[in-house]
Write a structure and sequence with these properties.
Number of helices: 5
Order of helices and strands: HHHHEEEEEEEEHEEE
Radius of gyration: 17 Å
Shape: globular
Number of strands: 11
Strand content: 15-25%
Helix content: 25-40%
Strand order of the largest sheet: 1-6-9-11
Structural class: alpha/beta
Distance between the termini: 11 Å
Length: 206
C-alpha cells in the first residue's frame, strides 16, 4: 500500500479535493499504462475476476446457474485506458452500462456482443437506450465490477470524475455488491482525497 504523501507533494496536498483528484488521475493513468506495457499480461482482468469470486465464496458453476436462472445479475464494463479487461470473456447474460447524461446508469445485456452497439462520448461501447433498462430494488441482487484507478484502505475508489457509479451505488446500496479490481497493490493508497458524494465499494481485489 502506498501513502498519498508519497504521490502528491506537500503543496499538492493543500489543493482543493477536486484538484487533488485530477492530479492523481493524471499520475495514475500514466502509471497504469506503464504497468500494462511492462507486464503485457492480457489475462490480468481474468485473474482478478476469479480471485473476487474466491473471496466472495461463489463457485463459478453456482454463479452461472444463478445468472441463467435470473436470481442474480453480474455487471461489468468495457475497459478503456489500459483498465483490467474483465469483459474479455463475457457471456450473453452479463450486464454492461450505458450513461445517462447528468444522471446515473442504464444497463443492457451483452447478448452476442456484436449487435446494436454505439460509442458514447467517452468512446465506450454501449447500446441504444431502447435496448437498456434501469436497475431497481425489485430486481435480483447484483455483483457489480466497477471501473476506476485506485482505492483507499477504507474502500473508497478514485474514478474518472463523472460520478455515475457513485450515484448508482448510493441509490441501490442494499442490492449491490460492488467489486473493484486493481492491477497491483501499487494502486491501493492509504488515504484518497474524497468528497461527500463518494461511495465505498464492498470488495477490493489486487
Amino acid at each position: 500500500m502506498r501513502k498519498l504523501k508519497d504521490i502528491l507533494n506537500h503543496k499538492d496536498n493543500n489543493l482543493p479535493i477536486s484538484e487533488q483528484k485530477k492530479l492523481l488521475r493524471k499520475i495514475l493513468l500514466l502509471e497504469r499504462e506503464q504497468l500494462f506495457h511492462e507486464t503485457n499480461d492480457v489475462n490480468w482482468g481474468a485473474k482478478q475476476f476469479f480471485r473476487a469470486l474466491e473471496l466472495l465464496k461463489i463457485p463459478e458453476k453456482q454463479l452461472k446457474e444463478q445468472l441463467i436462472a435470473k436470481k442474480l445479475f453480474l455487471a461489468c464494463y468495457f475497459p478503456i485506458r489500459f483498465e483490467l479487461d474483465i469483459a474479455r470473456f463475457s457471456e450473453e447474460y452479463w450486464l454492461f452500462p450505458a450513461v445517462q447524461e447528468g444522471k446515473g446508469l442504464l444497463w443492457f445485456q451483452y447478448g452476442d456482443g456484436k449487435e446494436n452497439y454505439i460509442k458514447n462520448k467517452y468512446g465506450i461501447l454501449e447500446k441504444k437506450k431502447e435496448h437498456c433498462f434501469e436497475y431497481n430494488s425489485s430486481m435480483p441482487p447484483m455483483l457489480c465490477f466497477v471501473p476506476g484507478l485506485a482505492a483507499s484502505k477504507e474502500g473508497y475508489r478514485l474514478g474518472y470524475g463523472g460520478g455515475y457509479y457513485d450515484r448508482f451505488l448510493k441509490t441501490n446500496r442494499d442490492q449491490i455488491t460492488a467489486i473493484f479490481c486493481l492491477p497491483s497493490e501499487r494502486f491501493l493508497i492509504d488515504d484518497l482525497p474524497k468528497e461527500s458524494s463518494d461511495e465505498k465499494v464492498d470488495l477490493i481485489v489486487w
